[in-house]
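Table 4 source record.
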Amino acid sequence: MNFKKMFLVAVLAVSQSVAAVPAFAAPVSTQTTTTGNVAAAVGTEVTPLQPESTDPLPPLVTEPPAGTVLPTPTPVPTATPVQGVPAVTATPDPAATEVPGATAAPVDGTVPTDAAVPTATPLTDTPVTPSMTTSAAGGGQLILMMNSNKMFKNGTPYTANQPMAVKNGVSYVSIRAMVEMVGVAFTYDAKTKEVIVTKGTSIMRFKTDSKIYTVDGTKVTMKGPAYQFKGTFMIPLTSITSALKIPYTVDNVQKRVILTLNTKPTASFTVQPKEIYAGETTVNYVTYSSSPNGAPIVEELWSGNKMDVYDQPGFYTVTYSVRDANNLWSDPYSVTIQVLQPNQPPVAQFTTDKDEYKMGEPVILTDTSYDPDNEELTATWNNRSLAYFTPGPLSIQLTVTDKRGLSSTFEKMITITNEQLYTQDEVTKLFTIPGDVISMDGGMIPALPNLPYTLSSEGYTLIRSNSPETVQTEGVLYRENSVGNTRFLVHHMNNMATRQKLYVIATNNNLYPTTINIQYLGIAGPVTSPEYTGKVSMEKYFNSMVTGLAQSQIILQPGQSLPIMTDLNKVAMKPKDVMSLSADLFSDLPVQYNVVMVEQSKDPVAELPYLPVLDIDGVHTRGTFPDSTRIMNVTDLVGVTQSKLLLGDNKMDKNLDGIDPMNGTYVSNAGNFGVLYKIVLDRVAANTLITFNPRGGPYLGPLIVNGTMVNLPNKGTIGKTSDTNAVVYRTGEYEGRVEIVFSVASGSNLPVNFVFTPLPAKK
């Protein structure tokens, strides 16, 4: 063929290609990233498109951004037949210029040629280009030419058994050509007329004439049904790219679809155990590897300082890679291992202030134990006491244990003489540290005179969300509007079979932004012990008063709803778990607060309008109570004779009255849970012991005395009998002022007494 004839053939081919693209598909941009179909760029049938089957491109920009590098046209090989590659000719259909309007049914009982004949054969006369090396690196591009059966994988041209086509507004490709190019396994089931694609452990099934395909049994709807044409199984492009998780872009100028391939395997590993000690720990390397195309892993490569046992402490980097059956290597995965100094046992030791004591004389023990690795130690004493009352030699032992279980024991001998200094009762009252428990005749405490006081209050609105305490279903547990100083007491148990989360949602229904200032905050749980959550939440609440560390600010825009105090919902509640919250905050405008419990995966703000308001349980209390800070001021001299201050009995100390806003009923705050008591004792006599005596049952919780937090008790539980008292405070040699801040911990019991007892004289 002479040059002139070649030129005319080329012009004719170009004009035909342009004519195949309708006018509305003319390019308006150079390149567009899309997750939709490419039908609009390829062409459509004459038949009007149905909205539900149209698969349009997203809006295109009018010009590429500044600095964009436009892709250069990929040379399309000539139409000269290549040996070993069957010529492919698309038969025109009366209804469309490119793809038949009706499915061409294969001969019964035969396997489509799409499943039996290689359809993507490289052109043997194509020179090797640098872009072809991308495949060996595990990535690259697959380019599908619109209106053509030409494909280019990393610069190498291939031919598909059918060209890209459009049917009812949906772009279709040969499924076999696609999966072969991507490198995943597939089979054809002639009985069910399904193509089964396997990628790794995932199995996808595509059925002839069906818009539904499945991924591991889960149904997915396609833009159009799969069909067979001339033995080729055609599939919507968006469906196969979505199923195989292949991103692509559309180049409207050069009429091509560019798929980004990732075929490299992945490799990673973990090291066990977490703590590794030089010369002691055998290291276990747990590997993880896979190929995105399901190719088997055929080789592992370790590099760096991989050892089973490390002789010296320090940091060691280990790298792991794998190669799959396609000869592709993963990216190297590295872990830096810290090898620690071998654990050394702790050293137990203590001193006494002297070696010889009278009976009833306080023995001062000073623990001087230490750990060479600077680890925290657990101390266990044997035969330790404030004082001893049996004369003779006496052994005291201390055992300390580090966190890895190594321990040591120290013993010291002292001598107790026949002379007595204090009685057992005197030692207990004079020297028991705050928070520890002493015994006192509980039968005589109710008869003690009650301290007279003047009562005032601070305007904190209390929202007590405690009913239903045991939550059986999702819903709103509390809903209230409040402005200014607001106090929360929230205490609930999840009694559902699924994991739930507890939220406090604040909504600004004003025309202006509102500011919420969190002042004090204590959150505990989720655990299964109501007493423990109440104790810990109150400890954190009082600690925030002492330190000020919980202070934060939230600005709510008009109409905005946000979860606040979000530590409440950081961890989901398992069945039977309990959460407790105690908090004080201030808002400059009215805020609606909703306490809700919903399944852990749900968005509480989105669910809020549809959640039911739950009914009370008839046992516990919920309600809104004004003036929830009670100030008790005692001006008389306290401690000259034994007396008490009784709280939570609803006689001497009346319950707060309030309202349940969900049903509009009046309620009494039984036990005054959530009330903050500020007890101000202007004059407490010298040598006065103040103890805490629960009367309603077990009690766990803290208080603040003269700015210092004291746990009630330090260990265990107080209040199992009426004789148990926890030491709160002991005055010195002079009269002074004592201030106590107290609030009942959720899960504990009322009423309680503060008992004031004169101390015996010190000797």
